[in-house]
What does this fold into?
Amino acid sequence: MRIVILILAAATLTACGNRGELKPEAGSSLPPPPYGAVATPTPAELMTPPPQTRPTRSDEVLRSSEERRSDEFELPPQS
It folds into this structure.
């Protein structure tokens, strides 16, 4: 019985996704353009993350190991 409830819950949650175009609600408009922008961005442009939020992967490996400096704040536990 528990498995049936989980399957129904999963099916319900997967059915609530919307795949249509993003449009502002009726009677409202898009947000104002950002400071310094020439035009108001489209919904697709607003949903595209800028490169700063998705940085490229760095595959640089550690070429030389370095000794860690001592940590003055690493104190033994007080008993």
